[in-house]
Amino acid sequence: MVDVPLEIVCVDCGGRAHLLTILDDEPVEAGDVLAYRCEDCLDRWDIVMTDDDDDGGDQGDGWAGS
Fold first, then answer.
1. Which residues are bridge partners to 37 per DSSP?
2. Where are the beta strands (DSSP E) in 4-62?
3. What is the pLDDT of residues 16-60, one digit of tens each?
């Protein structure tokens, strides 16, 4: 199971991008894709979730941007 951030930083403008994907009772697993939308520039970000959130990389929080 992967921890899901409800908000991420928009790579384009630095604004707040909020989770669009509705999370049901199913846990989010590595490889699942979640959608986010920036409240400032309205860009959409589709994030592929990973389970290597403890690797110390600069992505952090168990996600890898796409």
1. 18, 44
2. 7-9, 16-19, 33-38, 44-49
3. 999 999 888 888 999 999 999 999 999 999 999 988 643 444 444
